[in-house]
Amino acid sequence: MTLGFVSSCGYSLAKATANAKILNFTSSISALAFFMIFGEIYWSAGFAMMGGQVLGSYIGARMVLKKGAVLIRPVVVLACFLTSIKLLYDQLTHV
């Protein structure tokens, strides 16, 4: 989402990252509502993941405010590169 905001909307990396976080939060709330309706929630795993998300978001937001695009750019590139490598690996091993 961050790359989409930067390339399609011309946002700065900091603004694109902030908007992506808002969309991630919205989709997570929607998923929670969906799974609550159908009673398919594993509460202990969900609370553990929520704690990690809150902690990671707090640390990440503080780092972005301190370092800005100098930090965001390499992290976004690295995350995209690693995701591409994983997808390629998965495709090659499941043939």
Q: Which short descriptors sum up this protein?
A:
single chain, 95 residues, mainly alpha, 4 helices, 87% helix, 0% strand
Give a short summary of the structure.
This protein has 95 residues and is mostly helical. The protein has four helices and no strands. The model has no long low-confidence stretch (mean pLDDT 87).
User: What characterizes the major β-sheet?
Assistant: none
Mean pLDDT: 87
What's the tally of helices? 4
List the uncertain runs: none
Rounded to the nearest angstrom, the radius of gyration is 16 Å
Structural class: mainly alpha
Helix-strand sequence: HHHH
Terminal Cα span: 29 Å
- Helical residues, percent: over 70%
**Beta strand %:** under 5%
The protein's oligomeric status is single chain
Shape descriptor: globular
> What is the tally of beta strands?
0
Q: What would you note in describing this structure?
A:
It is a single chain. The chain is mainly alpha-helical. It has 4 helices and no strands. It has helices spanning 2-9, 13-37, 43-67, 69-93. Helix 1 (2-9) packs across helix 2. The chain starts with a helix and ends with a helix.
Write the layout of secondary structure elements.
Blueprint: H1 2-9, H2 13-37, H3 43-67, H4 69-93
Helix pairs in contact: 1-2
